[in-house]
Give the backbone structure.
Amino acid sequence: MIRPVLLAAGLAIIAVVAGAGYWLWSGIHEIENRSMIEEATVEPAPVEVRPGQSFAAVANQLVQRDLVTDSTRLRLHARWHGYADRIQPGEYALEPGLTVAELVRRMARGQVIQYQFTIIEGWTFGTLWEQLGLHPAVTPTLPADATESEIMAAIDRDEVAAEGRFLPETYQFARGTRDIDILRRANRALERELTRAWEQRVGQLPLDEPDEALILASIIEKETAAPEERRRIAGVFVRRLEQGMRLQTDPTVIYGLGDRFDGRLRTRDLREDTPFNTYTRHGLPPTPIAMAGRASIHAAVDPLPGDALFFVSRGDGTHHFSATYDEHRQAVRRYQLGLDEP
């Protein structure tokens, strides 16, 4: 009687083990091979891993969202592969065809959703700060009305004016990145680019330091959006500085007017003396007047040789360049006043 009992017990154990094995195998097979989302008419909400959150909590979140059927087998899978203790906080995208196994691998690698913030050439710092504060994925650390001095101190650039000190380009970051961290990246990128350009400057320039090149670059940025004109305009301003002429550039006057500028530059504005009025003062203004892009920075230290000392807008985004005042006066009559010189 003992042998049949032992046999029955053994068969029962085998059945249990086999059942458990099948249960585990089927779960792992699902984790490795079944897509969480087959098709999506709208983009599904990402999976969020909060700082300090355990993998067990993440697994339960996936079950609650019906992305996996069982959290136990998912935890076993993650433990077996060494992922459970390596998941990183952030947002993880869900797309059709993505398996749970691949999602967990992404969590272990920290392949979080990347957001973008683009600094546009010609922006002032005021515009940059405003737009950064509106970005939904950026975490604010300073009040919206923080002073420029407070902001620059927060990125370890005390005593440096904020205007023009951030490189225009697109920056990628994870949700929750602090505003000052994005500014710090953009500032360091600007400093690297400016240093590189200054080291590659061409010939003898009437510029004593990299900051003066940056100021000139910001004026070039505001004067033209035509890539082929940047070095020509740089050449005009460099020759004016060399000859002791005033730069007489409208964008600096407009910047000096600040909020008082209503879209129309008047004669009285050109005569009102401010530190930025290059009609009333010689040399460069005290700070940049906008964010200068790479092309304008390099144009400032590599101006195009020539004899032009004047330029006027043609009204189509390009300019007419002149070597003499008489030629410039004729160009103004033609392009600005719509008159032909008799």
In short: Residues 204-335 form one domain. The first helix runs from residue 2 to 33.
